[in-house]
Amino acid sequence: MSVMVPALRGSLLLVSLGLMVACSPAPEGAGGATAAVDEESPAYQAYEYRHSLMTLVGNRFGIVRGMAQGQVPVDNARFTKAALDLATLSTMAREGFPEGSGGVPGSRALADIWNNAADFENKLQDFEAAASALADLAESGGFAAAQSSVDALAQSCGGCHRPYRAEE
Ligand code: HEC
Q1: Do residues 90 and 97 lie in contact, with contact meaning Cβ atoms separated by under 8 Å?
Q2: Residue 101 in contact with residue 154, Cβ under 8 Å?
Q3: What are the pLDDT digits (tens) for 89-120?
Q4: 46 vs 32: CA distance, rounded Å
Q5: Closest approach atom of ligand 1 to CA 165
Q6: Does any ligand 1 atom lie closer than 6 A to the CB of residue 157?
Q7: Are 76 and 147 in contact (CB under 8 A)?
Q8: Binning pLDDT at 50, 70 and 90, where does residue 35 land?
Q9: CA atoms of 48 and 25, how far apart (whole Å)
Q10: Which residue's CA is the nearest one to ligand 1's atom 3?
Q11: How many Cβ atoms from other residues are within 10 Å of residue 17's Cβ?
């Protein structure tokens, strides 16, 4: 069986070499077209992160707001799960807005996020506070206890979107 070890090492080496080749920049002019967006750049990666995160936030928020507004049948377990997810997602939002990640084509994030960093931080904290309050109420008293706090969470979304997200 000991002969397997060098063979395995060899194949791992080939895999890592393959990855290195795949990650190295394409030669000048390869393929003819120039990419408009550098998808490997930290700014683009941050944009992808926050776009994905906000899409999930929108999905979870649709559940709690839909139930609070009587448009989605009330289901305590589903409501509480969505509220807990929102509390977790709210703590992940900050990572989506690193310094220097503005100006990505397709992004609606406005430059004031980084110009008014202290105020933007307040908006992140409002979001976290509202989402964790909703999750605590849902966990202790279910939909009935938490329903009236969905508005406060909605205000934290709008409180950040109005100054810091461009119109579509
Ligand atoms: C601290 C600021 C902030 C808070 C709080 C916030 N958002 Fe966002 N949201 C943004 C920004 C900025 C964008 C645009 C991101 C981009 O395009 O780069 C965005 C984008 C979105 C999008 C569009 C997703 C996409 O990229 O296509 C949805 C949906 C969304 N937010 C939902 C919500 C909901 C629902 C809440 C509250 C539960 C919320 N957001 C709270 C800042 C915030």
Answers
A1: no
A2: no
A3: 999 999 999 999 999 999 999 999 999 999 99
A4: 27
A5: 12
A6: yes
A7: no
A8: low
A9: 20
A10: 160
A11: 10
